[in-house]
Amino acid sequence: KHPLDYCLMHADRALSNGHEALVVLGGDRTGPARCVAHACELRERVRARVPGLALGGWANPHRDPKAQVDFLEERGFTGEFFLTQVVSHHDLPAVEAFLKELRARELPVSPLFGVFFYRSAKLKTLERLAKYLPIPIEGISRDFESGRSAVEVCANTIASLRDLGVNQVYLSNLPFLIAPKRLSEIEELLGSS
């Protein structure tokens, strides 16, 4: 969605600011035109200009596992890792199907599964989020209704992913000003289970 020069400058800045990796996504096909047709083309350009960055891509376990792994297996993918769309402990069948396909093909790229930090079960908020992300509204609502805290709900998802053999996650939506505190609380819960 940005001009190619801007995208390449962003990669330059990332490396100069000490970042070791950058996720390169293709973007939606609505709105402004992309500077290249596919994310793999942009990764190729970034790699040529900033060879010191590890580059990542994207996959969505909520979609057809075969098609998603096909994207990762394409010769032009050129990524060392990939992020996934956020998942929850309520999405485990989709995650298992995705992992089964990924493991069957023995891809050399590492996944980092997305975990969303649900701060509450306010229906209006969850419905608004569901316009952009796959939100298991009923399951998350039940979690909070049963007395679980936001930290416990998040830790439950990470523990469930660990049980499936997922060792790397990224957290989305941690409250900025208290992110270190929340992260510490999540880690403490995971360490005790």
Characterize the structure shown.
This protein is α/β, with parallel strands linked by helices and 193 residues long. The chain is built from eight helices and five strands, in the order H-E-H-E-H-E-H-E-H-H-H-E-H. It has helices spanning 4-16, 39-49, 65-73, 92-105, 123-129, 137-145, 150-163, 179-191; strands at residues 21-23, 54-59, 81-87, 110-116, 169-172. A five-stranded parallel sheet has the order 1-2-3-4-5. Helix 1 crosses helix 2 (39-49), helix 3 (65-73) packs across helix 4 (92-105) and helix 7 (150-163) packs across helix 8 (179-191). The relative contact order is 0.11. The mean pLDDT is 91.
Helix content: 40-55%
Give the strand line-up of the largest sheet: 1-2-3-4-5
SS content category: alpha/beta
Large-scale geometry:
globular
Computed Rg = 18 Å
The strand count comes to 5
The quaternary structure here is single chain
Overall mean pLDDT stands at 91
Proportion of residues in β-strands: 5-15%
* Spans of at least 5 consecutive residues with low confidence: none
| Helix-strand pattern | HEHEHEHEHHHEH
Q: Main beta sheet, described?
A: 5 strands, parallel
Number of continuous helical runs: 8
Query: For the terminal residues, how far apart are their CA atoms?
Result: 43 Å
Record keyword descriptors for this entry.
5-stranded parallel sheet; alpha/beta; 193 residues
Record the SSE blueprint.
Layout: H1 4-16, E1 21-23, H2 39-49, E2 54-59, H3 65-73, E3 81-87, H4 92-105, E4 110-116, H5 123-129, H6 137-145, H7 150-163, E5 169-172, H8 179-191
